[in-house]
Design brief:
Layout: H1 2-6, H2 10-13, H3 15-27, H4 33-46, H5 49-62, H6 68-80, H7 84-101, H8 105-118, H9 125-138, H10 141-161
Length: 164
């Protein structure tokens, strides 16, 4: 994939991901994070926000979204696609995921709270999942429940504002 991208053949670079997605369940093949980073970089090269958003959904469901390389690739893709707001939001949310990966629940909660209070960026479901992961790895069950309650209503407001 990377070779195709470097030789200016980005459309062909996505074929392996398509094949893995289409036929992977039959032979128990699933993409790993390097494949996902190459796919995101391809979307960046094509400046294809729509395709990038589809891959973002896939990486989120597959559990790759917490990877720093994946996040950096999405920041680059969003920037090149003209969505500087999304690039900036992902950049602001990266510390939450990093704290979560390292089991630092207190710092993850503090950063999450700061993001919510800033009003500049509204934490999304990926940020929320990172906080929950950090809390569970750090043994902060009570804090996790408190943040869960507050964030559920927070997300409902967002959903109702965006329409059906």
């Amino acid at each position: 994939m990377t070779c195709l991208l470097k030789t200016e053949r980005p459309c062909e670079a996505l074929k392996p991901l398509t094949d893995i997605h289409t036929y992977g369940a039959h032979d128990n093949s699933f993409p790993e994070f390097i494949t996902m980073v190459a796919s995101i970089n391809t979307c960046s090269k094509l400046a294809s926000l729509r395709l990038g958003q589809m891959i973002h959904g896939y990486t989120t469901r597959a559990g790759f979204i917490s990877d720093v390389f994946v996040q950096n690739s999405f920041i680059d893709m969003n920037g090149k696609s003209g969505r500087l707001d999304l690039a900036e939001q992902m950049f602001e949310e990266m510390p939450v995921a990093a704290y979560g990966m390292n089991g630092n629940g207190i710092s993850a909660l503090q950063t999450f709270t700061k993001l919510k209070k800033s009003g500049i960026h509204k934490p999304n479901e990926v940020t929320f999942a990172s906080v929950l992961s950090a809390c569970s790895h750090s043994g902060f069950i009570e804090e996790q429940v408190r943040e869960t309650r507050g964030s559920r209503s927070f997300h409902r407001e967002d959903a109702s504002e965006s329409g059906p």
